[in-house]
Amino acid sequence: MASAKLQAPRGTFDVLPSDGRRRDSLRALADDLLGRAGYGSFESPVFEDTELFARGVGASTDIVQKEMFTFEDKGGRSLTLRPEGTAGACRAYVEHGMHKQPQPVKLRYWGPFFRHETPQAGRYRQFAQIGAEALGSDDPSLDAELILLLDSLLERSGVKSRLRLSSLGNAGTREAYGEELRVHLRERGSELSEEVRGRIDTNALRAFDSGHEGTRAVMADAPRLIDRLDPGDAEHFAEVRALLDDAGVAYDLDPTLVRGLDYYTRTVFEFESPSLGAQSGVGGGGRYDGLVSQLGGPATPGVGWAAGVERILLAGSAAPAPEAPVYVAIVDREHRRAAFALARELRGAGMAAQVEQAGRSMKGQMKHAGRLDASTVVIVGDEIEVKDMGTGEQVPVADAREAIAVVTAGAAISG
Ligand code: AMP
Predict the structure, then answer these.
(1) What is the C-alpha to C-alpha distance for residues 155 and 317, in angstroms, rounded to an integer?
(2) Chain centroid to CA 278: how far?
């Protein structure tokens, strides 16, 4: 019987070493940028109680209605593979009493997330996100800081993007505005798409996201939330904008910006990259001052973002070249251990070093060193010689110790 070929599940992918290098350097960049602004490394489980997302992300969202990977464990508990990171961060904040620490508590994370979406370029069922959250203060400088950090991360990854920015006000304003919007939508109900009409009562704001022509015309005449902000929210938003203006970051004020999650209040933003086509969102986020209390914690303001690792890599420029390794070649089997030890010592001295491990001939080893783009080859036999792959010059050395000295001195000169 022919066995079916095993493949990664639909919408998932393997990261091979050739892609891994770019992911590694993106991660190092994110850790550096966020770490220097005080965002500490944070991890939470890949699965959580389903209720966390039902309550935290919002029952009317696409994520909760259609996209969650939910399963029952052996004890009959309903668990869900996390579709986003903010709810888990808020749960952890409450669970570990982080409100007793000096505020704000700043967290950064990197890891896999899961959404049951129709796969296409830049859209997967398992994808990685980089995220940052600041909990425990509603200072507008946190909104601005987080936006600037994501802007730097994208810029330094070679992603050209446009920043859309808006404010959704507070829950009260949003409720009053929602009623106003629903009246408008009902008045023009016959012009709307069926989907939008069906959502008037549950999530009227999402109508701004619609691509449907009739709906778009209705939305062009719709009242705008940004014109209804109360004085406190308007002032908060003005301060966020002033800080962004001072930093020289360009943004488009876009009152139609509605993020896919229910929990946002005040600032919302999204970075889009035109080079990504249909899935243009590279990263986005906003303020969620009601989320922690909604999850049963003390009233706690918060703001954060998440950015898609794969989309940053798709839209970004090529990775920096890896460090050229030293290649340790072996003249004959007798010298295998000496060569192995030499490679280990070179690594100990801070060099990238690889040793022959596939029984190649000397000619084959030189060819392989070329493929690896080695800077230097150390040839280990009865004699030890060091070959500079740039100049082709090959010199004998007295012993392993001198070989290491020559190689590290060469690296110091060229590096
Ligand atoms: P969101 O939580 O929906 O705002 O997503 C934040 C970022 O995660 C987006 O801007 C994308 O870059 C990325 N992202 C979201 N969903 C997916 C997906 N299904 N596949 C790949 N990346 C995604």
Answers:
(1) 10
(2) 19
Task: Look at ligand 1, atom 4, and give the residue with the nearest C-alpha.
Answer: 284
**Nearest alpha carbon to residue 91 among 50, 133, 54, 52:** 52
Tell me the per-residue pLDDT of 338-365, one tens digit each, with 9 for 90 and over. Answer: 999 999 999 999 999 999 999 999 999 9
Where are the alpha helices (H) located in 16-119, listed in sequence order? Answer: 17-36, 50-56, 62, 86-95
Tokens of 224: 């705008």
Q: Is the CB of 310 under 6 A from ligand 1?
A: yes
Residue nearest to atom 21 of ligand 1 (CA): 123
Q: Given this model, what pLDDT does residue 415 score?
A: 56
| pLDDT tens, residue by residue, 365-395 | 999 999 999 999 999 999 999 999 999 999 9
Q: How far apart are CA 316 and CA 243, in angstroms?
A: 26
Contact between 56 and 295 under an 8 Å Cβ cutoff? The reply is: yes
44 close to 89: Cβ distance less than 8 angstroms: yes
**Ligand 1 center to residue 215 CA distance, Å?**
25
